[in-house]
């Protein structure tokens, strides 16, 4: 079993041998920090139970969260966050009402990504930023995930990674390459400020031998196939 503590131990080992390497979560947080300034208006889409707004949202003039899972919203750990049950394709917010929109682990679930991208652009004020984190559909881990039905995926997540099966949702990967994201964003009126593709060999590191093999695989993986995409787009 590869629980989060064990995975983080392997991440620390990988970081020690690859100075400067960061997890995708750390890269995502660093992108968000650029714009989560005191007094900003911030919408976290797919906010779940908290995430990055727990660290950075308290000083925002307005901190709001949208999610489809009511149970997660009820358990949200940042009390200053105004929460609403809503899909990213139809956000109950006024046009141009946020300086920052964030979402992590959302884009891979989109049934109609063009609608979602357009809705994010509508919610952003001119000059506002959308920062996101999502899997790369080209990576071998993501390709394997695409072959597994989400109900079986939930069972495997619980058995292999010791994580809550209830937090596993259907994935579609209809926007999950850098080129597809760029095209959809451009059509929605957003321009790319920066994109990082982040590798991580620990998802298959169930033991030392598999960690070594995964690290070798990471070394030969083309940069465009790294497992996660972190993006920053501006209206």
Description:
The protein is of the alpha/beta class and 235 residues long. The protein is built from nine helices and seven strands, in the order H-H-E-H-E-H-E-E-H-E-H-H-H-E-H-E. The protein has a single domain, classed as Rossmann fold (3-Layer(aba) Sandwich), CATH 3.40.50.150. It has helices at 4-17, 24-33, 52-56, 70-74, 113-123, 140-146, 150-161, 178-187, 208-220; strands spanning 41-45, 62-67, 82-85, 98-104, 124-135, 191-198, 228-234. The protein has a seven-stranded mixed β-sheet with strand order 3-2-1-4-5-7-6, sandwiched between helices. The longest helix has 14 residues, at 4-17. The N and C termini lie far apart (43 Å). 38% of the residues are buried.
Which class in CATH terms? Answer: Alpha Beta
Contiguous low-pLDDT stretches (5 residues minimum) are 154-162
- What is the overall shape? globular
The CATH topology is: Rossmann fold
**What is the CATH H-level superfamily?**
Vaccinia Virus protein VP39
Largest sheet: 7 strands, mixed
């Amino acid at each position: 079993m590869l629980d989060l503590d064990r995975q983080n131990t392997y991440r620390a080992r990988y970081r020690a041998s690859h100075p400067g390497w960061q997890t995708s979560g750390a890269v995502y947080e660093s992108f968000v920090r650029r714009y989560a300034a005191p007094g900003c208006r911030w919408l976290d889409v797919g906010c779940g139970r908290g995430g990055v707004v727990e660290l950075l949202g308290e000083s925002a003039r307005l901190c709001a969260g949208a999610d489809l899972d009511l149970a997660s919203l009820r358990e949200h750990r940042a009390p200053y966050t105004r929460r609403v049950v809503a899909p990213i394709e139809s956000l109950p917010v006024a046009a141009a009402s946020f300086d920052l929109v964030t979402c992590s682990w959302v884009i891979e679930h989109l049934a109609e990504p063009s609608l979602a991208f357009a809705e994010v652009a509508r919610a952003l004020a001119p000059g506002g930023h959308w920062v996101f984190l999502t899997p790369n559909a080209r990576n071998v881990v993501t390709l394997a995930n695409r072959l597994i039905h989400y109900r079986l995926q939930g069972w495997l997540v619980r058995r292999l990674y010791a994580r809550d099966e209830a937090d596993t949702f259907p994935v579609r990967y209809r926007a999950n390459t850098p080129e597809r994201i760029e095209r959809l964003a451009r059509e929605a009126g957003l321009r790319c400020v920066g994109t990082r593709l982040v590798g991580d060999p620990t998802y298959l590191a169930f033991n030392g031998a598999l960690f070594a093999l995964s690290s070798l695989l990471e070394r030969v993986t083309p940069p465009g196939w790294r497992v996660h995409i972190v993006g920053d787009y501006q209206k």
